[in-house]
Amino acid sequence: MQLNVTKRLTAQTHIGIIRWNRSYSSVPVSSPPQLHDADYQELYNLLQSGKTSMDMKTLSKIHSRIVTFGYGTSPSLMTSLMLKYVHRNRRSIVYKITGQVFCWSNDLVELNMIIDKLLRMENYRVAKMVFNKMPSRDVVTWNTMIGGYVRKARFEEALRLFRFMIKSNVEPDKFTFASVMNGCAKLGALKHAQWVHELLIEKRIELNFILSSALIDMYSKCSKIQTAKEIFDGVQRNNVCVWNAMISGLAVHGLALDAIKVFTKMEPKLGEAAMANISRLRSGDYVLLSNIYCSQKRWDTAQGVWEMMKKKGVRKVRGKSCFEWAGVLHPFKAGDRSHPETEEIYKMLEGLIQRTKLAGYVPTTDLVTMDVSEEEKEGNLYHHSEKLALAYGILKTTSGSEVRISKNLRICYDCHNWIKMVSRLLSRVIIVRDRIRFHQFENGLCSCGDYW
């Protein structure tokens, strides 16, 4: 009785990758034989079931059997095999297989899939090798490479490849532009952004909500918020993504009042549209929808959003700021009174608030969307986590010394302005590391130039 493939792999341990190295070049470029379909299926199943944990000994045996059975030109088997070697970081073998890739596949769809898988596994060199050796490429091929680079934060390479695409007279499509604009946004590359936008117009690419959102986001992150606003005013706003892009852009530039105005213009039904697929919503989506209702003073509806959020088990990420003192990390949350030195901290904070108010500090109460009095809104802002952490830092450090704070979320507009003022009044260097970047406050200015 014929042994199955698994048993033969065990029995023939002497068949290794060396045999393939010597004989693979002689494999004919023809369809794999169909004499052992059961063997083919079992080999394929072995490669699929092994996931990423398959050891080299087993992998070498499978490789040898593929060649022995004449399946060395099977696209599905050889692709799966190559990806296994990528997982094992066996570069020399991967390069050898890649060198033969066109012996077993000239199908564009198949090759595009191979490139995509390689990029997702961060094997850029092999992906580029396959791309460069392809006898022909379609727009999907280019999009796969460019999108893969952007997805893995290789923005400069994505932009270089896009320029090469244009020089090669390949017509980009909507997907190409969406990826490239994302790359420009992440780099803050204004000149590139303007060139891409001009090209988009030249190619007469019709804007959809994805491209509109990408354009607004790109100009916002390239410090051209006015251009972003002009684009927002001129495009269709029938998708929540377009509104989100504009609101986020305004918030990043510290234009809190403008952000609230956009909130108030946004039809609540658009926000509700995001609720259609409730399982995909993140906490930030719920908060955004709730804020829309709050800005329109629809308090009961906003409360309903929070109750739905609670029912679905979605939790809002709570802001936390930390100050390290004497080797101990002291965490603070908004309104926190759990610290052993709470009384001293709040006394210090109240003194700082009074000094800054006398110097012109005006709390940005528009940021508070709760149905409470103006006084309560101010109180809410006074007790943000970064303010508490800074008060404790000043309490513990000597006059003129540097204070360092870290925060898990982006610092809010009100706290950013307040800390600038504190740095000037106390002649202190205050460094805040938030989720986005480092902020060095000194003499009433911030290193971010009020753009973060």
TrEMBL record:
The keyword Cell wall biogenesis/degradation does not apply. InterPro entries: DYW_dom (IPR032867), E2_motif (IPR046849), E_motif (IPR046848), PPR_At4g14850-like_plant (IPR046960), PPR_rpt (IPR002885), TPR-like_helical_dom_sf (IPR011990). GO terms for biological process: RNA modification. PPR repeats lie at residues 138-172, 173-207, 282-316. Keywords: Repeat. Residues 360-452 form the DYW domain. Coiled coil: none annotated. GO terms for molecular function: RNA binding; zinc ion binding. Signal peptide: none annotated. Belongs to the PPR family. PCMP-H subfamily. This is PENTATRICOPEPTIDE REPEAT-CONTAINING PROTEIN. It comes from Salix koriyanagi.
